[in-house]
Amino acid sequence: MDPHYAAALAALESGSEMRIEQVLQGYNRQNSRTFTFDRNEEEERKKVCDEILKVLQKDLGPSCQATSLETIRILSRDKKVLDPLTTRPAMLALIRLAGLDYTQSSMQEISDVGVRIEALKCLCNIVFNSEKAQQLSMDFKLAVGACERLKMHRDKNLPHEIKFFDLRLIFLLSALRLDIRAQLKDEQQGLLLLTDILESTLDIKWSDKYVVATDCRDPPLPKEQADLAMEVLKALFNVTYYCSQQENDEDHAHRYRYLTAILCHSLLLKTQAEDKTEELHSHTINLLNNIPVSGLDLLFSPGIKCATVDYNGKKMDAVEVLLDFMEKRIDRGSNLKEGLTPVLSVLTECSRIHRDMRKYIRSRVLPPLKDVKNRPEVGTTLRNKLVRLMTHIDTGVKHTAAEFLFVLCKESVDCLLKYTGYGNAAGLLAAHGLLAGGRGDGQYSEDEDTDTEEYKSVKSFINPITGHVEEPMPNPMDGMTEEQKEYEAMKLVNMFDKLSREQIIKPMRVKPDGTMGPLEEVANEYTSDHNSTSDSDENV
Question: In this predicted model, which residue has the larger pLDDT, 315 or 442?
Fold first, then answer.
């Protein structure tokens, strides 16, 4: 047996509080950063967990309790040793030590802060790593107890770590259990409760209904406030997931508009570190995807002081933050599906519904076209970067980027091809059944796009496939005799025929409805029509 575990077990079995605390403190210091454990010592770790749970039933001092819980927290990082910690008595003991048993008076007062914090951390680890613990959390109504304490979060004297891990636990429970998510949403009024906590955390001051008084000269948000705000945003994302589009009554519309105004303020905040600011904005943007699109007009940020971006009398500072965030994520180039698609989706819905927002975003992304010498995907502008994404290997990224540009073009095929070229847009047009041209189903204003003089002068020379002016290419058939041309043509036909027969490629055609279909359908239709004609000729 490992000497560290042997010493821990001996101390725990001795019953000496001083000895227990001394030995476990040494173990905790040595393993505070340990997240990977030796498989050969699983049984020893289980025994230590079991013995600590027995000790915690005794009347220990707060310092020894906190140290023992810290050891459980470290050991609970290992999924293989959770059996002793996921029994009904063990879970109930941890819930009570965390002060989250809603039936107990311990809910009302935080006496031993260190014990509460360590017990909360243990619960977070165990719930995250164990389905059995998640079920027991539902049985013991852990989310109800957590929500009862969330109602105390406006109290400035409640320690930061208590607030943080309360929210972390709510996030984990709502992410891992759909029944707990529904319980939070319906029985516990999760949207209202969490919005209230977010308002308190960000020290929101209202200048009008749905208008937060935002001043860009305010100092950066302190780290503790930023961390709390992000936990609230994550929990709100879970509570509002799949709900926003189904709840159209007046009360829910009010709650979502109220929340959207706070999210607009959140976008305009800065923290003490650039990476923390980006993280805060990322969680804000994720949540904006759950907001009914009718409420996104609040991103015009009417209450901001010292606004720097004005468009048609409307302040677009929050929209500018979204655009800058999008460009940073594109430039980073990694994890685009999770990092980029949420902000693209928000910008797409803003552009689809709100005319002024679309016009401003288009002025930034698709300004009047002047450069037609380079391919649309070549360059460093936002248009170039987004066009490159239209052929990205990840289908989700490719579709979201193409849809964004399509909406900016008011779902006009001609306009989209002008900015992207047919080759880049073919995938989106095929998905929408618009390969033959036309418009999408969206409803947009009738204002016309104006072409620049530079574009008009070379429009007839632009290759519609590549989307730029190409240098004239020599004709490869110049100097060939008719026999040579026929030979080359037949050679090409035979190559395509071979590829088709071996099912390496499948010849397709654009059908009258603008979708793609197998070319063989044409032959079948022709044969069917020919046979029908022949039959009719034979009838008398």
Answer: 315
